[in-house]
Design goal:
The structure is a homodimer of 89-residue chains. The first copy, chain A, is mostly helical and 89 residues long. Chain A is built from four helices and no strands. The first copy, chain A, has a single domain, classed as Monooxygenase (Up-down Bundle). The first copy, chain A, starts with a helix and ends with a helix.
Chain lengths: 89, 89
């Protein structure tokens, strides 16, 4: 049980990592240095993790990867939104 | 076995995601928009994942997180290196 909590904590910390990235982006209105390739890999990988989690019926894997997928998609969308906006100015 | 391969593939894809970010950074010599907070969370979370993997003796968790930890640390170091270099110019 003790180690299960470590696993859950690890998932929460890694997934929370996207939040400071989103905050930084929203504040500076710029995410040009962020690699779209990286976030494309993450989206594919996390989608696979979700299907794996569903198959082995692991709620932690499913929840962590749905959260991670949503946050990654947010970073990617903000990146293109800010880039496009600056181009049009 | 088929689903184990999906899990391994998911780990490899997510971990590989850092590579396009490193390549982008090395090419542009700029990673200012990348959040150091995000990578600090990732380093802590992945260190926990490694200890969890060691405890449950799961080679995939250990390998994926050692690779992820090393690549994240690379992104974080490059970010500060390029920022410092530009400041000194």
């Amino acid at each position: 049980m003790h180690w299960k909590i470590i696993g859950i904590l690890a998932s929460i910390i890694v997934t929370s990592g996207f939040i400071p990235q989103i905050i930084k982006g929203v504040k500076t209105k710029r995410l040009d240095d962020v690699s779209p390739g990286m976030y494309t890999f993450l989206l594919f990988g996390m989608a696979l993790w979700i299907s794996y989690g569903v198959h082995i019926k692991d709620t932690i894997i499913i929840a962590a990867n749905i959260a991670g997928f949503t946050l990654s998609l947010t970073v990617l969308c903000l990146r293109f939104k800010y880039k496009k906006r600056r181009k049009n100015q």
